[in-house]
Design a protein that fits this description.
The complex is a heterotrimer. Chain A is α+β, with helices and mostly antiparallel strands. Helices cover 33% and strands 13% of the residues of chain A. Chain A has two domains: 86 residues, Ubiquitin-like (UB roll) (Roll); 68 residues, DNA polymerase, domain 1. Chain A contains six helices and five strands; from the N terminus they run αββαβββαααα. Chain B folds into three domains: 160 residues, Aldehyde Oxidoreductase, domain 4 (2-Layer Sandwich); 185 residues, Aldehyde oxidase/xanthine dehydrogenase, a/b hammerhead (Aldehyde Oxidoreductase, domain 3), CATH 3.90.1170.50; 318 residues, Aldehyde oxidase/xanthine dehydrogenase, molybdopterin binding domain (Aldehyde Oxidoreductase, domain 4), CATH 3.30.365. In chain B, 24% of the residues lie in helices and 25% in strands. In chain B, strands 3-7-1-14-11-12-13-25 form an eight-stranded mixed beta sheet, with helices on both faces. In chain B, strand 23, helix 14 and strand 24 form a beta-alpha-beta unit. In chain B, helix 9 runs parallel beside helix 10, helix 10 packs parallel to helix 17 and helix 14 runs parallel beside helix 15. The relative contact order of chain C is 0.13. The chains are: A alpha+beta, B alpha+beta, C alpha+beta. Chains in contact: A-B, A-C, B-C.
Amino acid sequence: MHGQAIEKNNMLHLTVNGKRYALEQGSRSDQVAPEHTLAYTLRETLGLTGTKVSCDEGACGACTVIMDGKTILSCMTLTIECDGNSITTIEGLSDPTTKKLDPLQQAFIDHTAFQCGFCTPGMIMSAKALLRENPAPTEEEVKEALAGNFCRCISHYHVVKAVMAASVKSR
Amino acid sequence: MGDKYRFIGKATPRRDATEIVTGGTRYLNDIQMPDMLYGKVLRSPHPHALIKRIDKHQALALPGVKAVLTWEDVPDWRGGTPRHTRVLDRKVRFVGDAVALVAAATEGIAQEALGLIAVEYEVLPAVFDMEEALKPDAPQLYEEYPGNRVTPGMPFFGLNSLTEIVMGDVEQGFGQADVITEGQFGYENLPNPLPPEPPGAIALWEEPNRVTVWVSNQASYMDKITLYHVMNRHVETRSIGGPCGGSFGSKFMSWQVQSYAALLSRATGKPVKLILTKEEHLAVFTMRPASRMRAKVGMKKDGTVTAVEGTWLVDTGYYSMTTQAQVAVGCGEVQIMVRCPNWALQPVIVCTNRNASGIVRGFGGQELKCMLIPLLSLAMEKLAIDPFEFLKKNYVKPGDGYVWRDGNWYTYRGVDYAAAMEKGARTFGWKEKWKGWLKPTAINGATRRGVGVGVHGNADIGEDASEAYVRLHPDGTAMLFSCVTEHGTGQRSNFIKMVAEVLQLPLESVSLAPADSLINPYEFGPAGSRGTYAIGAAAIRAAEDAKGKLFELLAPLLKTRPEELDTADGIVFVKGNPEQKIPWRAMSIDRTITGFGRFEPDYTLSNCMMSFVEVEVDTETGKVTLLRVVNATDVGQVIDPPGLAGQLNGCLGSGGIDSAIFEETVLDRSTGHILNANLIDYKWRTFPELPTIDNVVMETPFPSHRFHAVGVGEIATSPGPSAILMAISNAIGTWLHAYPATPERVLAALGTLSHGEKKRGGA
Amino acid sequence: MRPFTHYDAHAVEEALTLLKRYNGRAVLNAGGTDLLSALKGEYLLHYPEAIINIKTIPDLAYIREDGDMLRIGALARLSDVVNSPLLRKRYNALAEAAYSVATPQVRNMATLGGNLCQDIRCWYYRYPRHIGGPIGCLRKGNKACLAATGDNRYHAIMGGKGCFAVCPSDTAVALAALNGRIKIVGTRGERSVPVTDFFHPLGNELKRGEMVREIEVPRITGMVRQTFLKFTLRRPVDFAIVSVASVIAVPRGRCREARIALGAVGPAPVRATAAEEWLKGKPISEATAAEAATAALTGARPLRMNSYKVEIAKTLIKRALTS
């Protein structure tokens, strides 16, 4: 019964953006070590660098991804604890074959809802999770849903407009 | 206005928009290279100490460790102004100062190796207060700076760089005053611009003396210049700038982290990536200077300022690279805000044992005004002068002038901003909300509302030189070579717009070369709001130059003179007879045409932004809520409306307005530790706390370049902080002069705090 | 983060066995939002050898009424606490407190048990190793407490003993007003302690090898008014500077029972018993609320930089009672 996960099966299964990954546990660069965060695995092991790390302490939301329908902080999540989970990152929002953007992404472009853009993937993931649960939010609900996303350029006003525009479209 | 141009003034998607919203933008930390190593820095536990001994054997023995460097291993590379701060030194001068560098196969190994380096220190007494540091028996940080006074003057600004404001006769000025007020004011809370992306660098050294550095900087060409000086002027640096995840000025000086990566690459022969953690970003990278001022002002009943006299102490932390420049520009900017014939303002830059100050939006002027406006307010109160009227009256007018950073007098030849200020005041409802000094706008139970106003402007919108090439291709496309990175302002897209407008090409036919110093000419970079005017002018001139050469080449084919020609959409045609035309490809497919443009510094124009704020103060908790902001400016011509709105909204970020409400770096002044070096304890504005904001933008054509525009982005943070304190003081009916206005300070100002210092603790 | 051994526990007993085996060198991980920050900052006296994931324990995230008790499994996420119709209807002080925690993402990860067991926020204690080394303090076996004389703006105004860090948990404050208890399990059995007794000046009630299994709250019946107020510099993200939870029953205009808990004022949530007693039988008005607030804070002994917290605490009590 001790350390079952490691002994029973040395593989870790993740679904990222619809694609299934079987990752070995270990300390090589293509493996997952216990101390690897999900942000690290996404960025360094799987090469999905769209997810950003800013504070690395769970305060800024730059590393936000959607796991099993909920926004989580990938910098505060151990990859080893995500076995069997399904994760959506910013790379997974546009259509994998046509590359057509998600309406939310298009709304961010149309409203120039970013400045430096570093916080934008996290913002879009938070907004995406909101619109999935609540396709027609109020402005206040948008602000609450984005309450854990740090932006220092102050793109907030444009972001709220973009999310509202995307919500109207999706109705 | 909008119809005058095909692209200028219209909202067009940012060139990099798709990459940004899909996560495809490659910021510095997204770059991977084969064989890349990772760098980490061992940092000092002491605010001031000599390194007696370093034992790195254990660290070197750790598998995966490729290099461990200490002060004994590195060349005499130095930064600072004058050049004095060694890249690694035998002496450490603040908690977090660099002691040793490690390169290893992974970040984890590098981190582990840091713990295996044994260092023996001889701890020295430290000093954390600027006035203490000036005392004769204070601990001395540098031999080069006796008395901890930093050498005044910025050599980059010339031999007469501005170090003080001395003009007229202050005694006479005070004699003419109806009211004289004086006091001590501070702006010492060390706000951090705090871009989301931490500073860092990747370096690849090539023997014997060449280094390529991948940087995250708003002004990547300048890294080449800065590192050239740091590295003793014999290392050839190529800087490659990419998308920059925010800078707000700060990353302009990243020479330390860049030098660390370069030294580790030099030691290992491999590319080395060194990215600071957010904790390091907050605790060891640069932040705003701390300022303290003792001053006296004289004012007449009509709001004329007759004299300003005082001392401006600037705490630069453990070293200064640009603080002298901030003092110079701040001294210039304050003259733009206050027309006064008699000045005696003496800055003193002081070193203390804390993390260094550096470049931040507002660049000296914000710091100075955050102290001077409260002092002027005391005089305005005595004379019952409306601060809006005062600021409008005193702001620089065409024909006025100022001594700028190089010590020379410039006569302002821009527009009168009074109209924009008036329009802002109407939008805000200033006349209805202003009830007089120390009078609330409204009272509702325990909450009181108050209003305030501030202003800032900067003649650096034409500072320094810019150069650009524009290359025309036979397929009817053009490429701009201007060493500019995208750091959030949208300027890379805006320069494309300008070139497209000059050449009348579809936007998608114009591209911009990567910000690589190897292929681009000199570029000071977007700083001080200079992008729109200075960089824009170079791009415009390069496009015009290329167009002229194109016409020279094609005129004979159309059997006319070049002056008779015009172009649009890759076709050259005869003015007045568009049917007489020829495509660009007539230049021949084995040819390109390159135009060159250069901008020479021009300090005769200044931008301006006035901010009106309304706050609500809860008098029972001391909590300050920002309800409304109106920013008013005149930019001559809007280039990109959403981009401009974003810049103005930026007043709420990067150590701006909130440096008066909750932003501060908390330094333990007995040990030198920065206590809130994380994004929970360092406060920043969140979505649920957004005030209502309106940006009033006028477009009175400026005598700048062909689009008559000037930039304004940099100054957005600057009018707000003093306006907030003014609004709070008015709301609570008593002066509050400390930044930020914490609940404790508000309650203390209200006289609510009954508890003195009792028996410590809780039990 | 430095390496550690990782286990997924599939039953409470398995987690306890592992804890026992590691004898203080292993820690439990639920939501991870506090633990990972400690591991990254490396400011703890001992870096754990093993991390035991308890999210893999089934059936420990329930929220249900069971006879005369509300029972919440330790692994219930804060977002579940926020969104539970039962809690919103009958225990809304707890739902409000949970909503006030951190950010939406954190609430999707963090658990109620974790919120109660999280480490203190003292910025001397949490000073990161990588910027010159951690700062020693009583909790790390040193004698000195820099907070006692240093920047203690957020520290205790009552109840501090040697350490002046405050209990950072918002839900603990609501639970204190709801007379909540924390059920602790160890290899030698189970016990339950009132929330107010769970927190100690230098740690908490958990002994080596124990974990929190459940939170229990006496069932709320009849008309009671519940309030949770949290004072911060900005919302959200922040930990409380002061918070207040109140549960009051005022049938026919007279206070039958008042329970008032103060948060972030001391090492544990503090029940304002003097104020509660004083209010009994009185009408709730601005005047009585102010009296009660004064009574609640008579024992406060602020440090050099935090007397403002006393005023804020009084204000919050007043507002909680009259809201």
